[in-house]
């Protein structure tokens, strides 16, 4: 019976969460003040996935890493014509549509094709760029492959969620399709012969080939509608006034052929400066930022997780009146729910889901999500620790006149803590590593930074080796420190 | 006669279908040393634990200095427990604290006694139980006899009116029983009111004012040690005494 209550609760919570966003969409459609809102706000937030040169990518400009590319130039022009400032927010391509729907960004410019499926969920402007697909292959295979039909029995890769990925799936026979999140991972997989070819937008393919002598591009020959090879700007569904205004900008860009004349050459310049110095030491600042954020997230999350864990474990042991029983059920439902769902989903839920009500920055969202997650696990450790303390200890303290609370605080918890110290240490070290999950919402922790360095330098393996060593240094140091305190607590 | 320190009226305690205490009505007068003896499983420990409400009675009353503990809220029970020191069979010292910290904890956290004063009292108590040179030791390094004497000092630090002993020597090696009993005997001579559950018949004979013989959930006999050991009244007591080596 108790268990069932928890399940029902979880279902109710889940239902509530699915209902809320729907309601928001409808209200947005009813009153279209999208243009006014942006102009009032004075800032236009552009979402993009900066691993798609020359559309958008990370480059070091005057010693600072920033997002550049043809799409960013378009974004600047759009903002300028609307009379507002542009703010670029980067995240993974998969997260972009959710971010737009939940108000994390105002528009998406990320080489996004306005497919019919996407049109159902967002509004697109006119097409600002008509490209095509190419397939990037290893130069040594140039004789072997002619187009998409040459890959029978082989494997073709593309960015997950992209139209190229769907094209491979639908329009090739006997070819395995493989999706990855980032373009640089795909290229790495190609070079290490995990893939035989990578399908991508023509300009991207050209950028990669011109920067890497071992690669070559061949025509794809996919049968494509104009929708699939074109890029447009996405806005929230129902923002007709905003879309109409931006269409003016898009039309003038096309009329003056600004993309080919100005934007692509500008992007190309960044690509060139990018490959000058690709040694890992050149990027020490990027890695340092990564370490800094990884540690901030871990330490904050362990701290808040620990406090939450104590409260949850006490709530899980509450007994007596109906209020305490309800508290126990709630805490149990929470722990079960958190342990039963992936941390990645929780991170996205806090960032995008809670984002509907309060606009939390990515770092804060990440810390909240990981604290909430870690709290559930720590609660179980603490509960186990408290149960491991002999009942005689409690009786001795109570017989001395100590209250329930004082007994817990001065007698039971210190001993419980000692018993569970190794488990807590494990949790801390796990968190150092698991904090990498927040890279999906664009927090500049170590994994995220290494991805930037990878797309910056076109070097696939070196940054991975660097962060592997850095992670190990951090976890090893942490485990030494924890061992030191464990020894100090040994009295028997 | 003065007012009784502890009064028990129609006390009963069950664990599920197991009726451990059935109907107990007794009094403890100030300064009295009561020794509770009887066969194992007769409810002696449960009875003792009901006196300071470590076990909640199923029915009946337990009054301390006229106040019925079973009718009080938990805060008042906490403050009355201060006045009833308890010593356990398994010592229950706090293993993560030194001997001194064990003794100081409750006076400082419950009564708000200052550190310096608590330390001074703790040293005096350690001297009293003959362990002043073990103040900085951790419980794990003590012998059973030493640990139990520290436990007694810890209970005395709260300045209790009554001391409850729950088989204080049962977990000890035979050669250490004496040092603990000596401390208890000294306490009794100083006039401390004590309720002692024990199998030490020698202690009962020498120190007790009254012997309560407990079996099958009842106090079967309440007598002076001399009368009880030499002229037991009930068959149950006779049977019990015939089985132990005196």
UniProtKB/TrEMBL annotation, chain A:
SMART domains: PBPb. SUPFAM superfamilies: MetI-like, Periplasmic binding protein-like II. It is a multi-pass membrane protein. Pfam families: BPD_transp_1, SBP_bac_3. The chain crosses the membrane at residues 293-315, 349-372, 461-482. Residues 291-482 form the ABC transmembrane type-1 domain. Keywords: Amino-acid transport, Cell membrane, Membrane, Signal, Transmembrane, Transmembrane helix, Transport. Residues 1-30 form the signal peptide. Belongs to the binding-protein-dependent transport system permease family. HisMQ subfamily. This is ABC transporter substrate-binding protein/permease. The lineage of its organism: Bacteria, Bacillati, Bacillota, Bacilli, Lactobacillales.
UniProtKB/TrEMBL annotation, chain B:
It holds the Pfam family ABC_tran. Residues 6-241 form the ABC transporter domain. Keywords: Amino-acid transport, ATP-binding, Cell membrane, Membrane, Nucleotide-binding, Transport. Transmembrane segments: none annotated. It is found in: Cell membrane. The keyword Cell membrane applies. InterPro entries: AAA+_ATPase, ABC_ATPase_HisP-typ, ABC_transporter-like_ATP-bd, ABC_transporter-like_CS, MetN_ABC_transporter-like, P-loop_NTPase. It is a peripheral membrane protein. GO terms for molecular function: ATP binding. Belongs to the ABC transporter superfamily. This is Amino acid ABC transporter ATP-binding protein. It comes from Lactiplantibacillus modestisalitolerans.
């Amino acid at each position: 019976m108790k268990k069932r209550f928890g399940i029902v609760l979880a279902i109710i919570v889940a239902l509530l969460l699915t209902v809320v966003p729907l309601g928001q969409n409808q209200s947005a459609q009813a009153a279209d003040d999208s243009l006014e809102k942006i102009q009032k706000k004075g800032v236009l937030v552009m979402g993009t996935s900066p691993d798609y040169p020359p559309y958008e990518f990370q480059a070091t400009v005057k010693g600072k890493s920033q997002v550049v590319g043809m799409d960013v130039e378009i974004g600047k022009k759009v903002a300028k014509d609307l009379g507002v400032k542009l703010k670029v927010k980067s995240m993974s391509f998969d997260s972009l549509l959710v971010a737009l729907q939940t108000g994390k960004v105002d528009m998406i410019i990320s080489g996004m094709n306005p497919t019919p499926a996407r049109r159902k969920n967002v509004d697109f402007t006119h097409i600002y760029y008509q490209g095509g697909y190419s397939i990037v292959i290893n130069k040594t295979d140039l004789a072997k492959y002619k187009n998409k039909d040459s890959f029978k029995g082989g494997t073709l890769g593309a960015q997950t969620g992209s139209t190229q990925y769907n094209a491979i799936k639908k329009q090739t026979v006997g070819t395995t399709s493989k999706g990855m999140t980032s373009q640089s991972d795909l290229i790495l997989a190609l070079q290490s012969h995990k893939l035989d070819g990578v399908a991508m937008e023509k300009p991207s393919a050209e950028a990669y080939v011109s920067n890497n002598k071992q690669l070559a591009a061949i025509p794809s020959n996919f049968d494509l509608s104009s929708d699939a090879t074109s890029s447009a700007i996405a806005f929230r569904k129902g923002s007709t006034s905003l879309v109409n205004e931006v269409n003016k900008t898009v039309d003038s860009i096309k009329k003056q052929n600004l993309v080919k004349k100005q934007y692509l050459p500008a992007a190309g310049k960044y690509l060139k400066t990018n490959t000058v110095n690709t040694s890992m030491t050149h990027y020490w600042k990027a890695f340092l930022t990564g370490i800094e954020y990884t540690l901030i997230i871990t330490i904050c999350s362990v701290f808040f997780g620990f406090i939450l864990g104590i409260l949850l474990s006490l709530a899980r042991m509450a007994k007596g009146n109906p209020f305490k029983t309800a508290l126990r059920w709630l805490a149990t439902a929470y722990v079960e729910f958190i342990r039963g769902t992936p941390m990645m989903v929780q991170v996205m839920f806090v960032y995008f889901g809670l984002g509907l009500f309060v606009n939390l920055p990515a770092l804060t969202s990440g810390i909240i999500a990981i604290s909430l997650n870690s709290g559930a696990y720590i609660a179980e450790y603490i509960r186990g620790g408290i149960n491991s303390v002999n009942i005689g200890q409690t009786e001795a303290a109570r017989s001395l006149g100590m209250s329930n609370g004082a007994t817990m605080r001065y007698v039971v918890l210190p001993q419980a803590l000692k018993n569970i110290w190794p488990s807590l240490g494990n949790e801390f070290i796990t968190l150092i590593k698991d904090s990498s999950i927040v890279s999906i919402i664009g927090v500049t922790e170590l994994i995220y930074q290494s991805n930037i360095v990878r797309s910056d330098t076109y070097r696939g393996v070196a940054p991975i080796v660097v962060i592997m060593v850095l992670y190990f240094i951090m976890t090893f140091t942490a485990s030494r420190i924890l061992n030191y305190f464990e020894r100090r607590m040994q009295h028997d | 006669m003065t007012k009784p320190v502890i009064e028990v009226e129609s006390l009963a305690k069950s664990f599920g279908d197991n009726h451990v205490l059935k109907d107990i009505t007794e009094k403890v007068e100030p300064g009295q040393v009561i020794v509770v003896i009887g066969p194992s499983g007769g409810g002696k420990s449960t009875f003792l634990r009901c006196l300071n409400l470590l076990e909640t009675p199923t029915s009946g009353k337990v009054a301390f200095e006229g106040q019925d503990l079973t009718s009080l809220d938990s805060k008042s029970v906490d403050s009355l427990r201060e006045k009833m020191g308890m010593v356990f069979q398994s010592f229950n010292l706090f293993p993560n604290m030194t001997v001194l910290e064990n003794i100081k904890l409750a006076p400082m956290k419950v009564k708000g006694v200052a550190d310096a004063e608590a330390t001074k009292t703790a040293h005096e108590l350690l001297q009293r139980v003959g362990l002043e040179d073990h103040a900085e030791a951790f419980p794990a390094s003590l012998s059973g006899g030493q640990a139990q004497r520290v436990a007694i000092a810890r209970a005395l630090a709260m300045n209790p009116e009554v001391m409850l002993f729950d088989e204080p020597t049962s977990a000890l090696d035979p050669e250490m029983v004496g040092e603990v009993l000596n401390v208890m005997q000294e306490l009794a001579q100083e006039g401390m009111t004590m309720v002692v559950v024990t199998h030490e018949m020698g202690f009962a004979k020498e120190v007790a004012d009254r012997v309560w013989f407990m079996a099958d959930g009842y106090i079967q006999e309440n007598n002076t040690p001399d009368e009880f050991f030499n002229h037991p009244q009930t068959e149950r007591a006779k049977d019990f005494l015939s089985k132990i080596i005196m």
